[in-house]
Amino acid sequence: MTDAWVALEPGADPGARLGVLRRAHEAFTSAGRVERPVRPVVAASWRRSARARVSPDGSARVELAEDDLSAYREGHPLARAMPLFRELMGAYARDGEHLVAVCDASGRLLWVEGDARSRRRAGRMNFVPGARWAESSVGTNAPGTALALDRPVQVFAAEHFLRPVHPWTCAAAPLHDPHTGRLLGAVDITGGDSLAHPHSLAFVQAVARAAESHLALSAPLRRDDDDRALLYALGRDEALLVTGGSRVRLSRRHSEILVLLARHPEGLPGDRLLCELYEDESVTPVTLRAELSRLRRLLGDGLLRSRPYRLTVPVEADFTVVARRLGSGAVAAAMGAYAGPLLPRSQAPAVVRLRGRLEGELRAALVARADPGLLSDWVHSPWGEDDCAAWRALAEVAPVRQRPVVRARMRELDGELRAPAPVRGSPFATVSQRPPS
């Protein structure tokens, strides 16, 4: 096979491959053993699914009812791309008895359109708008795995982790904000064995690229009257500064400096900036001045001033947007704007404090709100998967059939804190148990 992301090489017999994959799926779910011809990308996804305690006989959960779904879709950035998806994929889906699906970055399906009979069949496994198809919820599937890996992927028949999904084949590609690179969701084509071809993956990749271009043109960067700059520092170690129609990716140290100056528009004197940036008290003011000089050259004339150090244009930072929404009680909106911890690897004292404060305030708001969907988003994120307080809150409000899984995860976290000890065995016994490769 020439492309590890394509399910079948040209000329392969789907029927023959299906039988072998079903036996391999049974070997993994019963004994944790990966057998040929399971692709490495699928084997890795199966292991993640097992660690997330996904049941191979489970089903997707509908998290957004019709009223909530309608309002959420209207405000989602991908709503602007839906006319393009329908134009490029609509006829292809109807003629081929396929489905077109678009999900958000959490794996919730926002739109599922296409052949009416296929929609009815898909509805029986909850492949419907409002249902969560994240890999951590339902295991290996094209949209969920594309989001987990942030790259296009095709999933064929028994490569799906859930047995009820074995009759289907799908190909999906992630979608990003063209200005910030933030993951917005994924676009997916789902159908029968005829989709198990390299062309379907290439097709959905091309559609994703066209959609990102469409989003860039429909909401282009523009220079506001006040030359406001935009700073994106959540969920990334190297911040992105957008100003005057240009994008500047910053080094880690320059990212820390911009975060602090955005946090203090009045400016910071050099001695305080030095203390806020460096753990090592032996770092001299000369080192800081050298960094600021390099930053000034990078940003161009006029954007960075000294005495005190400050930015000459207003800065709208993504972390201040989250804080502002939390302050107004808009918890769902704050969660939607939270792309991850602030400069996750930064050890600058002021950044560490700001990161911890923002994360703590958001967690507290989620726990107080007690919304199962929002709490589920948090605990299934990379930064919330080990958050005991959030898991406990979710256990109180999760649907009855989900509570055993949530409580099992809580017990695992408690066990890891007391005596973490890896034990080999069934992939569904504990998080510490990992199937052999």
From TrEMBL:
Keywords: DNA-binding, Transcription, Transcription regulation. Residues 245-311 form the OmpR/PhoB-type domain. The keyword Transcription applies. InterPro entries: GAF, GAF-like_dom_sf, OmpR/PhoB-type_DNA-bd, Sig_transdc_resp-reg_C-effctor, WH-like_DNA-bd_sf. Pfam families: GAF. The keyword Transcription applies. It comes from the Bacteria. This is GAF domain-containing protein.
